[in-house]
Amino acid sequence: MSHTIHLYATTQAIIFGNSSFWQITPPQTTLPRSKRAITLEIIGDAAQGVELVISPKGLYTASLHCASLADAQCYAHEWLGITPHHWDTAMTPLAG
């Protein structure tokens, strides 16, 4: 029997880009920048892999398939500073 995973976290970060393109990591560019509330989810199956879903408020959602929960949490930490204690099994509403 496989284990279903569904975790949530929220944070804020500077997003570079606009409604048709965005990026978390600052590029060497003059694209517009804005601080956005971001919801992250890790959804999947421990045996099949998980999706790391990143949803900046007001922009489109992006996802990345990861081989394991640990991989998804590593990307969330590297890109947005999300640590293990940020993850929850119940969704918390975004502020602002």
Describe the structure.
The protein has 96 residues and is mainly β. The chain has one helix and five strands. It has one helix at 69-80; strands at residues 4-18, 21-23, 33-45, 49-56, 62-66. The chain has a five-stranded antiparallel sheet, covered by helices on one side.
Give the helix proportion (percent range). 10-25%
Molecular shape: elongated
Mean pLDDT: 86
For the largest beta-sheet, the strand count, sense and barrel status come to:
5 strands, antiparallel
Low-confidence stretches: none
Order of strands, widest sheet: 2-1-3-4-5
Fill in the keyword field for this structure:
single chain, 96 residues, 5 strands
How would you concisely characterize the structure shown here?
It is built from one helix and five strands, in the order βββββα. The protein has one helix at residues 69-80; strands spanning 4-18, 21-23, 33-45, 49-56, 62-66. The model has no long low-confidence stretch (mean pLDDT 86).
